[in-house]
Amino acid sequence: MCNCIEKTEQRYKEHLKENNKTFKEIEDFEVGFTNKAFLMSSCKTEIVLPIEVSWEHRAKSGRVSTKRKVSSFTMSYCPFCGEKKGD
Ligand SMILES: [Zn+2]
Fold first, then answer.
1. Sheet holding 44-58: strands in order across?
2. 19 CA from centroid of ligand 1 (Å)
3. Distance from the alpha carbon of residue 8 to the mean position of ligand 1, in angstroms
4. Residue 65: its H or E element
5. Phi and psi of 37, rounded to 5°?
6. Domain ranges, ordered by start, for the chain
7. Model pTM score
8. Ligand 1: distance of its center to the CA of 70 in Å?
9. pLDDT block averages, 10 residues each, the chain of length 87
10. Cα–Cα distance measured from residue 34 to residue 36, given in angstroms and rounded to the nearest whole number
11. Distance in Å, CA 15 to ligand 1 centroid
12. Which long-range contacts (CB under 8 A, 24 or more apart) does 35-42 make?
């Protein structure tokens, strides 16, 4: 199984250190995808694709509010190299 997530994060960190004025002067900083999840099924950290559902909720009092729920889809293939996941 590939390690594209870690490699991409590391490469982006190096890119920022070399090309971004703000990060050239900072000793250390963290770079990480926000939509990562540890999947029990594979025991690996993978990128997931968040999907949001929102709707108007009417309470018994008549007050209307917006509710939202976020779920995540897992990907069958690595978004960076195309390797099939779960092999
Ligand atoms: Zn990959």
1. 36-39, 44-58, 64-74
2. 25
3. 9
4. strand 64-74
5. -150, 145
6. 4-74
7. 0.74
8. 25
9. 92 95 91 89 86 96 96 91 83
10. 6
11. 19
12. 35/72, 36/5, 37/72, 37/74, 39/74, 41/86, 42/1, 42/85, 42/86
Per-residue tokens: 69: 């729920």
- C-alpha distance from residue 2 to each of 14, 56, 64 (Å): 20, 42, 47
Contact 65, 59 (CB under 8 A): yes
Structure tokens at 29: 């900083």
Report how far ligand 1's centroid is from the alpha carbon of 63 (Å). 47
H/E segment holding residue 7: helix 4-19
* Beta pairing partners, 46: 37
SS3 21: helix
Residue 80 CA to ligand 1 center (angstroms) comes to 5
